[in-house]
Structure formats: structure tokens, C-alpha cells
Amino acid sequence: MRRRRRPRAFPAVSRSARRPRPAPYDRAEILTRWSGCAYCDGPAEELDHVVPLARGGPDTSDNIVAACRTCNATKYTHDLACWALTEGSGAPCVCDS
Ligand SMILES: [Zn+2]
Ligand SMILES: [Zn+2]
User: Fold this and answer.
1) Closest ligand to residue 65's CA
2) What's the pLDDT tens digit per position in 42-77?
3) What's the 42 CA to ligand 1 centre distance in angstroms?
4) 46 C-alpha to ligand 2 centroid (Å)
5) Contact 49, 59 (CB under 8 A)
6) DSSP codes, 31-91
7) CATH topology of domain 27-86
8) In this structure, are residues 58 and 44 in contact, taking their beta carbons and an 8 Å threshold?
């Protein structure tokens, strides 16, 4: 008499499917591509989201430029137009950030 062998259930553990997500952008590439701050003549030191993440901007390379520390810090979460208007002029923020 033959015993039917039941196929063994596959273990529920899938091979670690957690591969590191490729970064949505290449920091070094962006800094090199701009070869300077996108907003002034300063050095490219940091990445800046043109439309800040806080304002719903995407975290993708077409929303990211190189910026110097000063521009990045003063722009912060202001939208570009507001920052351009207020930066250095002392005018009050118009974008509510
Ligand atoms: Zn700058
Ligand atoms: Zn503002």
C-alpha cells in the first residue's frame, strides 16, 4: 500500500525580501552636476528640495538642487517665490512657513 506523501508546505519565511531601496537620487551626482549653489555663487554643499518636503514636494532628483549652507538654511521650508522675495529684504514671509 502506497502512502501518499503530502507536499510539504513551504515555510512561510520568504527569503529576506528586504532589499535596500535604491536612493531616489544620487547626492554626489547632484552636487557635481550643479557645481555650485543653485541660488547664489556659493559652493554646492547641501541638497535642497526646491519645493520643500514640508510643502508636499517630491523627494526626487527633479525637485532637488545643490545649495550652499546659507541658502539652504534661510530657504528652509519657504517656497521658492517667498524666499526670493523675503531673503535679504526683510520683507515678511508670504508663504506661511
Ligand atoms: Zn547659496
Ligand atoms: Zn515664506
Assistant:
1) 1
2) 999 999 999 999 999 999 999 999 999 999 999 999
3) 5
4) 20
5) yes
6) HHHH-S-SSSSS---EEEESS-GGGT--SSGGGEEEE-HHHHHHHTTS-HHHHHHHTTT-P
7) DNA Binding (I), subunit A (1.10.30)
8) no
What is residue 58's predicted lDDT score, i.e. its pLDDT? Answer: 93
* Cα(92) to centroid(ligand 2), Å: 8
Closest ligand (CA of 92): 2
**Cell representation of residue 35:** 557645481
Place 91 in a pLDDT band, splitting at 50, 70 and 90: very high
Q: How far is CA 94 from CA 21, 25, 40, 74, 81, in A?
A: 37, 30, 21, 14, 9
**Residue whose cell numbers read 514636494:** 57
62: its cell numbers: 527633479
The Å distance, Cα 77 to ligand 1 centre, comes to 15
